[in-house]
Design goal:
single chain, Aldehyde Dehydrogenase, Chain A, domain 2, 6-stranded mixed beta sheet, 15 helices, globular
């Protein structure tokens, strides 16, 4: 079921069904909703809204397939990801256009996502070397060893903003670890997973090891509740992350849920003008601001008007549809506009106004910069998830750090400076799990793990990297003794 688009021209795709035990399965009697191309505001496919029955069928298929998969040597499980990497490179253009059409990103942003997804696959290829375990002779004739084993059937729920990358944050670690995986992609962007399922089959993954159940809240709750699912991972809003983390943990699962963000970029007077202006604009407008690592607040320390003027100048030149993609849905445009309207009515100065943006026939909002935002303004406190940058002015670095740390969130924080001392102070004192110096989107790349602090994450560890592998496996400690010793220890 290849996707035929090679440009932004509207292109329909096949209807989406569930993928269970290696087959596409209809969901008769279930409501189907449209999958909208945000650039045009027009349906390019449909997706079924399923529930517990379909989740149960996927669990049964996964339970039947998982033991044989787990019994394969880890290098054989990883070999599937070597092959998947080759196939994704082969089809990189097709995958890029599919992400662009279902999500609304520009071609460049979509290709960057696909290439980052391939990096995640490459990390899966490396796991046999990383997961070698350890062993040690802890006493005379006594050896202790640690091996990592699958937990069983695991599940993941992923958001609309990265249709192919975020699922691949989870899947390599889970499958190379020996588990079977059930995915519920966002009902807004389920189409990239059609191709991923087909590529997995082409790469030789056995039936039942990767399954897809489509839907909304009912499927998420079923994944949290089902007794056959042993681990549950989630990426989405903080409100939902907190709820599903509690629900999954209460049902006895290990759970990890990533939530939202309100990322602060601290700009001090000695910041490099070119580096800062270019980077801040890229941070708050990239992916139309619809990413949990996007800049939301610029904390202006002292006199940095020359930098703010340059940021505004560059942001104003971005053309919707060419340099900046579409918003995911019409309701999101209204929500974003509401924050800007209320901030302006409260006295904020609109330096760059994206409320009149238009591209094709779909959902658009241009780069917007609000100056003079109070610390308690909703535009500073709440996650907007759009290309809106709120500027809060403070007198010194201590006030800037205090403002950052007053946020309920703790995903990312950055500082723009040419001073190592300033950078060290901010990196040591801000309350955020992912931090950047002169980098406005400080996403840790493999093998480093992705995960914030505070209300940006619920559960222990990170969702990618080695922490992700540890989350989807459990360590077995084996202590052995073969020789008969002439003396005794407490282990005799």
């Amino acid at each position: 079921m290849r996707f035929s688009a090679t440009s932004y021209d509207f292109t329909e795709y096949v209807r989406n069904d569930n993928y269970i035990n290696g087959e596409w399965v209809d969901a008769p009697g279930r409501e189907r909703i449209d999958v909208i191309n945000p650039r045009y505001g027009k349906a390019m496919s449909t997706v079924p809204m399923c529930g517990y029955e379909e989740v149960d069928a996927a669990v049964k298929a996964a339970e039947a397939a998982q033991p044989a998969w787990a019994n394969q040597p880890i290098r054989e499980r990883a070999y599937v990801f070597y092959k998947l990497r080759e196939l994704m490179h082969r089809d990189v253009e097709e995958l890029t256009w599919l992400v662009s059409h279902e999500n609304g990103k520009t071609y460049g942003e979509s290709k960057a996502e696909v290439l980052k997804a391939i990096e995640c696959v490459e990390y899966g290829c490396s796991l046999p070397n990383l997961a070698a375990g350890t062993q040690l002779d802890v006493s005379r004739g006594v050896n202790c060893q640690v091996v990592y084993e699958a937990v069983g059937v695991v599940a993941g729920v992923t958001p609309f903003n990265f249709p192919i990358m975020v699922p691949l944050w989870m899947i390599p670690q889970a499958l190379v670890g020996g588990n079977a995986f059930i995915l519920k992609p966002s009902e807004q962007v389920p189409l990239s997973m059609i191709r991923l399922a087909e590529l997995f089959a082409e790469a030789g993954l056995p039936n039942g090891i990767f399954n897809i159940v489509n839907g909304g809240r009912e499927v998420v709750e079923a994944l949290c509740d089902h007794p056959g699912i042993d681990a549950f991972a989630f990426v989405g809003s903080t409100r939902v992350a907190k709820l599903v983390y509690g629900r999954a943990a209460t049902s006895g699962k290990r759970a990890l849920a990533l939530g939202g963000a309100k990322n602060h970029l601290i700009v001090v007077p000695d910041a490099d003008l070119e580096v800062t202006a270019d980077n801040v604009v890229a941070s708050f407008t990239g992916c139309c601001g619809q990413r949990c690592m996007a800049a939301s607040v610029l904390v202006a320390v002292g006199d940095v008007d020359h930098i703010i003027d340059e940021v505004a100048k560059r942001a104003a030149k971005l053309v919707p549809g060419e340099h900046i993609g579409a918003i995911n849905m019409d309701a999101s445009v209204d929500r974003i506009r509401g924050y800007v309207d209320r901030a302006e009515a409260g006295g904020a100065k609109v330096l760059v106004d994206g409320r009149g943006a238009s591209g094709d026939d779909g959902y658009w909002f241009g780069p917007t910069i609000l100056d003079g935002i109070d610390a308690d303004n909703p535009a500073r406190v709440e996650e907007i998830f759009g290309p809106v940058l709120s500027i809060v002015r403070v007198a010194n670095l201590e006030e800037a750090i205090a403002l950052e740390n007053s946020s309920d969130y703790g995903n990312a924080s950055a500082v723009y400076t040419t001073s190592g001392d300033v950078a060290r102070k901010v990196m040591n004192e801000v309350s955020a799990g992912m931090c950047g110096v002169n980098i406005g989107v400080p996403v840790p790349r493999e093998p480093f793990g992705f995960g914030g602090w505070n209300d940006s994450k619920f559960g222990a560890g990170n969702i990618t990297g080695w922490d992700g592998f540890r989350f989807f496996t459990r360590p077995r400690k084996i202590t052995t003794k073969w020789a008969v010793q002439s003396d005794q220890t407490w282990m005799s």
